[in-house]
Amino acid sequence: MFRIVDQNLRLDYPPGHHLHCLVCQIPNRLGEGEAACRLVDPEPKWAQIRSILDLVAAAEGNLRKLHFLVFPEACLPSAHLDEMLGYLGEHFRPNTVTIFGIEHIRLRTYLALLQQFAGDNAEALASVEADVAAGDIEAVPVNCCVTAVKEAGGRQRVFLQAKSHPFFGEETIDPYHDLYRGKVFPLFRCAPSGFNFMPVICLDYVYRDLYQSNITAIIERANQLFFQSRQRLDLLCVLECNPKPEHQAFRDVINGFYGEYLAYTPGVRDTTTVFCNSSAETTGFGEGPDAFGHSMVLLHRSHKLAPVDSDEFRTDDFDGLPVCRLRFAAETRLHYFNLPLLHELDPRTTRYPMKIHAIYRPDGTGWDRLKGLSPGLTANGHDFQAVRQRDAAEPTARELPHHE
Question: In what order do the strands lie in the sheet with 156-162?
Answer without folding.
Answer: 156-162, 141-150, 96-106, 68-70, 19-25, 333-339, 356-363, 366-369
